[in-house]
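Thread: PTS system, cellobiose-specific IIB component, structure

OP (GT): Posting the sequence first so everyone is looking at the same thing. Length is 104 residues per the record. Can we get the structure tokens written out before standup tomorrow? I want them in the notebook alongside the other entries.
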Amino acid sequence: MAENEKTIMLVCAAGMSTSMLVRKMLDAAEQTDVHVKIFAASASDAQDQLAAEHPDVLLLGPQVRYLESDFKKTLTIPVAVINMQDYGLMKGDHVLQTALDLMA
């Protein structure tokens, strides 16, 4: 991992739909020469993944938006819910930009 590489964590109910979005985000990052690590976790595994990976930003799938306030209370990193339209249409470039903006 590059020293200045940022880590983006996505959380959804089961981790399945966000894994497709991760792929699209990685494609967008590659095309724009942005060096990031992006991974998805299920809501039930989120705490373990946060502890293991120490992400720089946490993005929540719209279906787990109810977790936002809990994460914001306990984390010192930016936490946001992914735009529902970007999520539904799997707009990896938009979601990547959201994450980058949150870390700026």
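GT: Both are above now. Quick notes for whoever picks this up: Residues 6-99 form a domain with the Rossmann fold fold (CATH 3.40.50.2300). The chain has a mean pLDDT of 94.
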